[in-house]
């Protein structure tokens, strides 16, 4: 049985959701699963926009067959050649051998690398600003290099005002019948997984995302159809998610909050930041978040660092360096190009505390970090005589939160 849904008069959702997968890209935990979206346009010509992961290929093929109702598939627009959207191409080619692939030069290079089926003779190469008319619909193509991969492009349906955005504007999480954002109780429910998805997968390429956002800004976009997550189908929600993307991709803190990341072997460092959090709360600081870096998956930590304005990294010393999970977090944040944050370092060590220096070495390679005074070096456990120091630390953090 097909499971497709109508988006506009002749545009249909034909993707599917995988709730069995534990880690997307074999890396990111997806406790709520993931959706692989694909869209079919039934015009004078039939057009498919991207395909799906093999895990949902059966429902996808059934959806297409049902909607085509005996017609042939004329075109497949390939906005992204990554396997989660292209694996099913091979099966599609077997079923619809006359199909024409629409992509850019890089798309076809990748296609030939990934697949053995004949690509030459089946291609229509497009460039920035190229258009394709399929009857009622005219599509324009907009290159979006590194908005995940180098071949990525976005396709705009000028007729129905739909922007097919590739991975951009996607979220983790399966779709459960409701494919539109306004079929959910509140768009805010999508935010943590949209943020975790963006920051971990595309976060590194903020400059490229900014360039694409500027490029598509003049277009009248009524729908955003991404390759994961729900369809953004009303103006208010679209403006809201565009604003989030603008913040994330410019590395602007999204909220005026503090997040404390700690790495602690026996709990003494953890205890110190618990004391600090209470001091902060007493100073009126709200919405404090704390994470044990050895406990919480790093993808959630990356997302939280992109969200907040002030970041505290507190860690045990470890073999003349820093606790390894903390080192991994900092290196990953650096790899994701995190910028424009106020940062406080706290260390603990029993014989030669080395954590602050090791953390600072990584952080000094990040752009535009306001390193707050770190005078809090703990010897094994917080000493009652250090209370004044903890109070001062809390004051410095509060000030950093209030500084624009
Ligand atoms: C494997 C290991 C390596 C350590 N290396 C150092 C070190 O190089 N320098 C140091 O001062 N303390 C070192 N320590 C001691 C811890 O940093 C210290 O006891 C810890 O910070 C106490 O805080 P915690 O309870 O939060 O882990 C090490 C501890 C362990 C278990
Ligand atoms: Fe991708
Ligand atoms: Fe994807």
From TrEMBL:
Pfam families: ODP. PROSITE patterns: FLAVODOXIN_LIKE. InterPro entries: Flavodoxin/NO_synth (IPR008254), Flavoprotein-like_sf (IPR029039), Metallo-B-lactamas (IPR001279), ODP_dom (IPR045761), RibonucZ/Hydroxyglut_hydro (IPR036866), Rubredoxin-O_OxRdtase (IPR016440). Residues 258-398 form the Flavodoxin-like domain. Gene3D superfamilies: 3.40.50.360, Ribonuclease Z/Hydroxyacylglutathione hydrolase-like. CDD domains: flavodiiron_proteins_MBL-fold. PANTHER family: ANAEROBIC NITRIC OXIDE REDUCTASE FLAVORUBREDOXIN. In the N-terminal section; belongs to the zinc metallo-hydrolase group 3 family. This is Flavodoxin-like domain-containing protein. It comes from Johnsonella ignava ATCC 51276. The lineage of its organism: Bacteria, Bacillati, Bacillota, Clostridia, Lachnospirales.
């Amino acid at each position: 049985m097909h499971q497709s849904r109508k988006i506009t008069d002749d545009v249909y959702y034909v993707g599917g959701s995988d709730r069995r997968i534990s880690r997307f890209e074999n890396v990111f935990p997806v406790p709520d699963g993931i959706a692989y979206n694909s869209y079919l346009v039934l015009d004078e010509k039939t057009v498919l926009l991207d395909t799906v992961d093999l895990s949902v290929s059966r429902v996808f093929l059934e959806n297409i067959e049902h909607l085509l109702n005996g017609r042939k598939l004329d075109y497949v627009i390939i906005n992204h050649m990554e396997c989660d959207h292209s694996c099913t191409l091979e099966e599609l080619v077997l079923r619809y051998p006359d199909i024409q692939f629409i992509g850019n030069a890089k798309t076809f290079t990748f296609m030939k690398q990934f697949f053995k089926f004949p690509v030459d003779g089946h291609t229509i190469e497009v460039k920035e600003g190229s258009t394709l008319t399929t009857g009622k619909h005219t599509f324009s193509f907009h290159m979006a290099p590194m908005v995940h991969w180098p071949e990525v492009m976005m396709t705009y349906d000028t007729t129905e005002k739909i922007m097919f955005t590739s991975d951009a504007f996607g979220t983790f999480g399966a779709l459960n019948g409701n494919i539109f954002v306004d079929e959910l109780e509140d768009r805010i429910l999508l935010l943590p997984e949209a943020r975790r998805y963006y920051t971990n997968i595309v976060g590194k390429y903020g400059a490229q995302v900014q360039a694409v956002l500027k490029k598509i800004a003049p277009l009248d976009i009524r729908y955003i159809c991404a390759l994961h997550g729900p369809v953004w189908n009303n103006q208010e929600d679209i403006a809201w998610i565009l604003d989030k993307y603008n913040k994330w991709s410019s590395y602007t803190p999204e909220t005026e909050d503090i997040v404390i990341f700690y790495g602690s072997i026996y709990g003494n460092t953890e205890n110190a930041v618990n004391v600090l959090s209470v001091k902060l709360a007493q100073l009126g600081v709200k919405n404090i978040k704390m994470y044990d870096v050895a406990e919480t998956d790093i993808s959630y930590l990356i997302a939280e660092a992109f969200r907040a304005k002030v970041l505290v990294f507190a860690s045990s010393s470890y073999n003349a360096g820093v606790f390894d999970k903390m080192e991994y977090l900092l290196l990953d944040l650096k790899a994701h190009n995190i910028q424009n944050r106020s940062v406080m370092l706290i260390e603990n060590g029993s014989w030669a505390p080395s954590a602050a220096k090791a953390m600072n070495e990584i952080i000094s390679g990040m752009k535009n970090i306001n390193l707050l005074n770190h005078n809090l070096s703990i010897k094994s456990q917080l000493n009652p005589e250090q209370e004044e120091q903890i109070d001062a630390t809390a004051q410095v953090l509060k000030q950093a939160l209030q500084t624009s």
